[in-house]
From TrEMBL:
Keywords: Activator, DNA-binding, Transcription, Transcription regulation. Belongs to the LysR transcriptional regulatory family. GO terms for molecular function: DNA binding; DNA-binding transcription factor activity. One of its GO terms (biological process) is regulation of DNA-templated transcription initiation. This is LysR family transcriptional regulator.
């Protein structure tokens, strides 16, 4: 009995090898394919999987005739495993490269407007200033960008109006004033401001409800009013832009949002008052994920490019970052 009790308290904790094996099984779908990827015996993977399931007290996969299907517990563990393994890999590279030229891989997620304003400049500066940094730049709607960050698919993200979340480390960067955008036939031919109450009577096109819609404005109460009146809701900037140009409705955005169409005269914009509407751009990182030297360099570069784009008028916004 004593030996049995001792074996329980001396049970080795879960280690990175088990996580790597588990992730391989999840991604490959079968023990045999995962064994080939990890270059270990199928029996060894099966043993490690059994130990993990015993440690968690829950099955991680359902055995099917054609492979393994993750359970809810397996899905959750995979999310954590990806984050842990990525952090461990980054830490190893970071320590090895300390004191040498900045190098490594950095994944950046940006909302659509941020890519338009600084995306090309960021790529250009990385190539010229940090030739050993490998940049991965992803563009998506603001809410999707945040989800990519929380799923460990990007290391740093530029997001509008992120929700309060203890898992996030956020820094407010700039504030943009929102305008009404549409054809002159829909929003009027004047340049004078339009009242928010009057906007509710227009055929509105909005981002689809959910976390992406938060990027539209800071005031969630006003956002709910718009969502209740929206004629169309879309989850595509391209689709919204094409619908605006086709005269199917109008949208609340920034001048940068539809800059080319506004400059060409195809679309018109009017300021919004009573109240004025704004949104705030944040630089976001995961609070529990330490930054590498490469990530710190890229973060500093992003903030510098944002500041410069505001100062030279390419990005019509007010800096809130010190």
């Amino acid at each position: 009995m004593f030996l049995s009790h001792l074996s329980k308290i001396q049970k080795p904790p879960m280690d990175s090898r088990q996580l790597r094996y588990f992730a391989a099984i999840y991604e490959q779908g079968t023990l045999s394919n995962a064994a080939g990827t990890c270059r270990v015996a199928v029996s060894a993977l099966s043993h490690h999987l059994a130990n993990l399931e015993a440690e968690f007290g829950a099955p991680l996969f359902v055995r099917k005739p054609r492979g393994l299907q993750p359970t809810a517990a397996g899905e959750r563990l995979y999310v954590h495993a990806k984050s842990i393994l990525k952090a461990m890999s980054a830490a190893e590279k970071d320590i090895r490269e300390a004191g040498t030229e900045i190098a490594g891989e950095v994944s950046v997620g940006m909302a659509y407007s941020a890519v338009k304003a600084i995306g090309v400049d960021l790529a250009r500066r990385i190539v010229s200033d940090y030739p050993k940094v490998r940049l991965s730049l992803s563009e998506s709607l603001s809410g999707s960008t945040l989800m990519h960050l929380m799923a460990s698919e990007v290391d740093i993200a530029l997001v509008y109006n992120p929700p309060a979340d203890p898992r996030l480390k956020t820094q407010a960067v700039l504030e943009e004033q929102m305008v009404l955008v549409g054809t002159r036939a829909i929003i009027g031919d004047r340049d004078t401001p339009v009242r928010f109450a009057d906007i509710l009577d227009l055929p509105m096109i909005l981002l689809r409800q959910g976390i992406s819609a938060r990027a539209l404005m800071d005031d969630t109460n006003l956002l709910r009013k718009l969502e209740g009146r929206a004629k169309l809701q879309m989850n595509s900037v391209h689709a919204i832009g094409a619908s605006l140009a086709a005269g199917l409705g109008c949208a609340i955005g920034t001048k940068l949002f539809m800059y080319e169409h506004i400059e060409s005269g195809l679309l018109h914009y009017r300021p919004i008052v009573e109240p004025e509407l704004s949104r705030t751009l944040y630089v976001c990182e995961m609070a529990d994920r330490p930054a590498t030297y490469a990530l710190e360099a890229v973060r500093s570069l992003i903030l510098d490019l944002v500041r410069r784009s505001v100062m030279d008028g390419r990005w019509e916004a007010r800096m809130v970052m010190p």
